[in-house]
């Protein structure tokens, strides 16, 4: 059996029993260059669609990126062909969810936020706690698991059908991945720069979520919810959770938190069940919860001001100090109330370190 025949056999085995349902998320170059690209929402999809449009404008491809929706036989032929390059990019789920929330709940497309989370101004914390009870099968494409895109993705399919599977981490890694994908087109440097140029619509979708992850995931429970919800993405794409997220996950297990991952889920992440000796776990005191309706109103009001997210613990604290001074007087209860703010929602860890 030749190498080509062996590859065809591996493709056939990977697709055996797998339903084929071509949807909208496919860009096909043409029969000459033979590139089948699957794009996903919040994985640079606006940028990639623009790249394929630019290829057409350069006269390199015969048509705009076409959809394979309804073209079952053509889609089946391409999937089974060892001659076509199949490309898919993916993103670390904590970053992808945050990017989706910032775009849809803090950008100009607030109807999306209302459609998914029930309101146009839902905070990131509230969105995550709402997400945990949602059905991933019916969730909007900007938020449902990446393995549910591209006609369904499994490890055997990625290993045997796709010729390029890469994680997008930042602007530079994205441009590098696209350059690699476009190699069959044999573009000149000038052509490549024009193809990679993007318009205002692409920049409007950029949220730079990777650079602010720790700012939004200070509460370990938020990390636990997102990782658990998207555990299949981590497993199938073999994604390594960020260091701060790993520390948060060990902290949840240390205190038997309801949002801690199970042993099986930790193994799916490729993490040992006990933290390495170098891991410092920041314990969060959640024993004191906000005790009054006024506490919750003030806390939610402060969190709704997303622009102060990086210092929200201090912001909320000063709001509470003023509130308690007004209600109780200077000497009564402000310290306890401030402790409630910092402890009740696990926003700012205390200084107690436990080395595991």
TrEMBL record:
Signal peptide: none annotated. The keyword Membrane applies. It is found in: Golgi apparatus membrane. It is a single-pass type II membrane protein. The lineage of its organism: Eukaryota, Sar, Stramenopiles, Ochrophyta, Bacillariophyta. This is Carbohydrate (Chondroitin 4) sulfotransferase. One of its GO terms (cellular component) is Golgi membrane. InterPro entries: Carb_sulfotrans_8-10, Sulfotransferase. GO terms for biological process: carbohydrate biosynthetic process. One of its GO terms (molecular function) is sulfotransferase activity. It comes from Seminavis robusta. Keywords: Glycoprotein, Golgi apparatus, Membrane, Transferase, Transmembrane, Transmembrane helix.
């Amino acid at each position: 059996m030749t190498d080509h025949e062996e590859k065809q056999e591996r493709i056939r085995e990977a697709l055996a029993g797998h339903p084929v349902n071509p949807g909208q998320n496919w860009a096909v170059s043409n029969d000459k260059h033979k590139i089948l690209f699957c794009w996903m929402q919040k994985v640079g999809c606006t940028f990639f669609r623009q790249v394929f449009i630019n290829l057409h404008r350069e006269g390199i491809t015969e048509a705009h990126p076409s959809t394979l929706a309804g073209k079952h036989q053509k889609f089946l032929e391409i999937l089974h062909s060892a001659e076509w390059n199949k490309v898919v990019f993916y993103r670390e789920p904590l970053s992808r969810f945050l990017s989706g929330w910032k775009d849809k709940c803090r950008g100009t497309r607030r109807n999306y936020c209302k459609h998914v989370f029930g309101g146009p101004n839902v905070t990131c914390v509230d969105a995550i706690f709402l997400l945990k009870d949602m059905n991933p099968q019916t969730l909007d494409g900007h938020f449902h698991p990446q393995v549910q895109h591209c006609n369904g993705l499994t490890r055997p399919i990625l290993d045997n059908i796709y010729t390029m599977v890469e994680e997008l981490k930042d602007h530079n890694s994205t441009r590098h991945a696209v350059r690699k994908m476009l190699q069959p087109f044999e573009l000149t440097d000038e052509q490549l720069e024009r193809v990679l140029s993007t318009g205002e619509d692409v920049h409007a979708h950029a949220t730079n979520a990777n650079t602010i992850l720790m700012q939004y995931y200070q509460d370990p429970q938020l990390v636990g919810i997102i990782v658990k919800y998207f555990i299949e993405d981590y497993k199938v794409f073999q994604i390594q959770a960020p260091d701060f997220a790993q520390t948060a996950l060990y902290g949840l297990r240390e205190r038997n938190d309801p949002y801690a991952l199970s042993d099986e889920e930790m193994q799916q992440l490729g993490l040992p069940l006990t933290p390495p000796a170098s891991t410092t776990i920041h314990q969060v005191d959640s024993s004191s919860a906000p005790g009054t309706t006024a506490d919750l109103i003030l806390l939610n009001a402060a969190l709704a001001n997303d622009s102060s997210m990086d210092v929200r613990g201090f912001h909320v604290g000063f709001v509470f100090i003023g509130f308690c001074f007004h209600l109780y007087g200077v000497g009564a209860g402000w310290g306890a109330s401030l402790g409630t703010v910092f402890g009740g929602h696990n926003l700012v860890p205390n200084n107690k370190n436990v080395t595991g």
